[in-house]
Amino acid sequence: MNYYESKDLNRFAEVGKFKPELMNKFFDYYGEATNTDGALSKREKALIALAISHFKQCPYCIDAYTTASLEAGANPDQMTEAIHVAASMAAGMTLVHGVQMLNNLEKRGA
Amino acid sequence: MAETALHLVPNNKYDFNKKLRESDIDLPPLSIDTLQVNVTLNCNQACLHCHVDASPKRTEQMSRETIDKCLEILSDNPQIKTLDITGGAPELNPHFNYFVIETRKLGKHVTVRHNLTVTIDGDPVTGESKIYLPKFYAENEVEVISSLPYYQEYFTDKQRGKRVFQKSIDSLRMLNKVGYGIEHGKLILDLVYNPVGAFLPASQVSLEKDFKKELWKNFQIRFNNLYTITNMPIHRFKEQLERQGTYEDYMDKLINAFNPAAAEGVMCRSLLSVSYDGKIYDCDFNQMLETQVFNGKPMTVFNFDFQKLIEREITFDTHCFGCTAGAGSSCGGAISE
Question: Which residue in chain B has the smallest CA separation from A66?
Answer without folding.
Answer: B199
